[in-house]
Design goal:
heterodimer, A: mainly alpha, MetI-like fold, two-stranded antiparallel sheet, B: alpha+beta, Rossmann fold, OB fold (Dihydrolipoamide Acetyltransferase, E2P), six-stranded mixed β-sheet
Chain lengths: ~290, ~375
């Protein structure tokens, strides 16, 4: 804190520590009510024995976790979820990077309007956008209709109700988040670095590989963390575009909690996802420390 | 009136040009002409200074030579090779930026090695040449530092090493001293010039500081509004400026309205004076005299002063004591003030406000410009 202490109207000095605590209090309260308490509750439910059909007993048990980890299907779910999220993250990065780089370089006059356009998809909920993709990519959808009418293909391309559909839908939904993170991390990228590299004999590809991309890695790491977490926790898009044929942790939690009413199992699966979040965060922490 | 700048180029003509700008022009789509029909020849091993106020086109010119701004009109020839259309990474040019532009994610050694890697120099040789380059800029042992751990002066020296280690055909320096503090700037000025001369590398130095241009450069091009106002040696530029703009830009100067009588005679504050110009057309003009070229003495009869010197009587209006010099404002006619700088001689030996004094200057120190030159 600086030497000048804030004063109240009476002229009395407010101790700095107290001031900080007062400023942090609202956020701390919101976090407590909307995050800490639910997670504690979730954790406790995951150790409760259930008799099926949504009835909870008063007995504590490890059954839910043992059940999860002894079922080969659960391990397949973890594998599917992690692989799907990684593919979606990399795909989103590839799609967003040119957009972000362009926005970073474009003249300030255009930057604001293009920036708003980039994040405008966030105005429409993911559910609506997912239905949009179903209309576009369905067997009798716009894309297949056009291609078949043009005689390019005889039978419809399988674009939905499979993993490909989930990838396409999720990547489109996550692009604004990735683009925002990348732009936020592009602060160190100055034109003169590229110009210096060019004068030293680096071709445009080498400039990208040796100078531009390394300098933007903090933004890349942040965007990848965000997109990985959002991808692995999404369930509406995988459920709708996967057509019930793509099995992931998030969709499984939804089924367990809402369809089978097995809250303790759903809670245990949620905790597993939370642990994966924690691991992703730890990887991010290590990466960003190394980049610094 | 002074001769136009084009006919007065003395320095470059003697030797063949190594760097040659021929009619280089930069037009922007909105009609703005940043650089207008520039013709400059620089002999091998010379340091060309491009001097001018901000927005005069000097940096754009440098960036066109570097290939960072495309040359759409005119030609750039380096060592007999047309380079106008070559991309920057094929021009073999060392570039030093005002903000250093060291890659922040690389160490000093990696920064300096970058250009050598791009040229496919073997690893063992890279190491030796990087050490040699760091030694040249007096930073041996700094190879593993990160740029941000170094001072501005050190960073600029690394950037110089990085530009020179590739042994480029040309070295371009874009206001390299502007981000440094005054003391360091003086040091770096000498150091850059010393390295440039030792390597004999043809260089272009962009600056808005006339001291840098005059002290460091072999040839100075003064630019104004995209055009070359004058090209010549530092001595030419200072002593024989081609226009009032150049005269004012390269140092303090008195600007006094005068009436041209005939030949080299002008009437200034009621006194007829002799000037450096010949064959002046009659009419109104502007006399320009540098403050330190005027000699101030206690008042005596101007007629006693020899014919070879101009002498005008005046009254001291303000005295500013600076230490090594004293600045005077002397009123030589109703409302006409002459700024004069004298080296201090010793305590109490300067004139005081209200003193009657005689201002003397040699005809060669009095430049006459037409009113439209101003």
């Amino acid at each position: 804190m600086s030497a000048t202490q804030p004063t109240v109207a009476t002229g009395k000095r407010v101790p700095t520590g107290l001031l900080i605590a007062a400023l942090l209090l609202p956020l701390a309260l919101i976090n407590l009510v909307s995050f800490i308490i639910p997670v504690v509750r979730l954790t406790s439910i995951s150790f409760i024995q259930s008799t099926g059909g949504g009835v909870l007993t008063d007995n504590w048990t490890l059954e839910n976790y043992i059940g999860f980890f002894t079922d080969p299907f659960s391990l397949e779910l973890i594998w599917n979820s992690v692989v799907m999220s990684l593919v979606v993250t990399v795909g989103t990065l590839i799609c967003s990077y040119p957009i972000a780089l362009f926005l970073h370089r474009v003249s300030p006059r255009w930057r604001n309007i293009l920036f708003v356009m980039t994040i405008s998809p966030l105005l429409v909920s993911a559910v609506v956008r997912t239905y949009g993709w179903m209309v576009l990519m369905g067997d009798r959808g716009v894309i297949n209709g056009l291609l078949m009418n043009a005689g390019i293909i005889d039978s419809p391309l399988r674009l939905v109700n499979n993993t490909l559909g989930v990838y396409i839908g999720l990547i489109e939904i996550l692009i604004p988040y990735m683009a925002l993170s990348l732009i936020a991390g592009f602060g160190r990228l100055e034109r003169s670095y590229e110009e210096a590299a060019a004068s030293l004999g680096a071709s445009s590809f080498t400039r990208f590989r040796r100078v531009i991309f390394p300098l933007t890695l903090p933004g890349v790491a942040l965007g990848c963390l965000l997109c990985f977490v959002l991808a692995i926790s999404s369930f509406v898009t995988p459920k709708l575009l996967g057509g019930g044929r793509v099995f992931l942790l998030a969709t499984e939690i939804y089924d367990q909690a809402v369809i089978q009413l097995e809250w303790p199992s759903a809670a245990a699966t949620s905790i597993v996802v939370l642990v994966i979040f924690g691991l992703a965060l730890a990887v991010y922490g290590r990466v960003s420390r190394r980049l610094d | 009136m002074q001769q136009p700048a084009e006919n007065r180029q003395t320095t470059p003509a003697a030797q063949p040009a190594f760097l040659s700008l021929r009619g280089v022009t930069k037009r922007y789509p909105n009609g703005f002409v940043a650089v207008d029909d520039l013709h400059i020849d620089v002999p091998k091993g010379s340091l060309l200074g491009l001097l001018g106020p901000s927005g005069c086109g000097k940096t754009t010119t440098l960036r066109m030579v570097a290939g960072l701004v495309p040359i759409e009109e005119g030609h750039l020839v380096v060592d007999g090779q047309e380079l106008s259309a070559a991309p920057p990474h094929r021009r073999d040019i060392g570039l030093v930026f005002q903000n250093y532009a060291l890659f922040p994610h690389m160490t000093v050694g990696e920064n300096v090695a970058f250009g050598l890697e791009m040229r496919g120099v073997p690893r063992s040789e890279i190491r030796a040449r990087v050490d040699e380059a760091l030694e040249m800029v007096r930073l041996p042992g700094y190879r593993d530092r990160k740029p941000r751990e170094m001072s501005g002066g050190q960073q600029q020296r690394v950037s110089l090493a990085r530009a020179l280690v590739i042994r480029p055909r040309l070295l371009l320096l874009d206001e390299p001293l502007s981000n440094l503090d005054a003391k360091l700037r003086d040091e770096m000025r000498v150091e850059i010039r010393e390295i440039q001369q030792r390597l004999g590398i043809t260089s272009v130095f962009v600056t808005h500081d006339q001291v840098e241009a005059l002290t460091m450069c072999d040839v100075v091009g003064v630019m104004n509004k995209g055009r070359l106002a004058q090209l010549g040696s530092p001595d030419d530029i200072y002593e024989r400026p081609a226009s009032m703009f150049v005269a004012e830009f390269v140092g303090r100067i008195n600007k006094l309205p005068c009436e041209i009588v005939a030949g080299d005679r002008v009437r200034l504050a009621g006194t007829v004076c002799r000037s450096a110009a010949h064959d002046l057309p009659e009419g109104r003009g502007i006399a320009a005299i540098r403050p330190h070229r005027i000699h101030l003495t206690a008042a005596r009869d101007p007629n006693l002063v020899g014919n070879s010197t101009n002498a005008v009587k005046g009254i001291v209006r303000t005295v500013t004591y600076i230490g090594d010099i004293v600045q005077y404002d002397v009123e030589i006619a109703e409302g006409v003030l002459l700024k004069i700088e004298q080296h201090t001689q010793g305590s109490g030996l300067h004139h005081n406000t209200g003193d009657e004094v005689l201002c003397e200057w040699a005809p060669r120190d009095m430049l006459i410009f037409g009113r439209d030159d101003a």
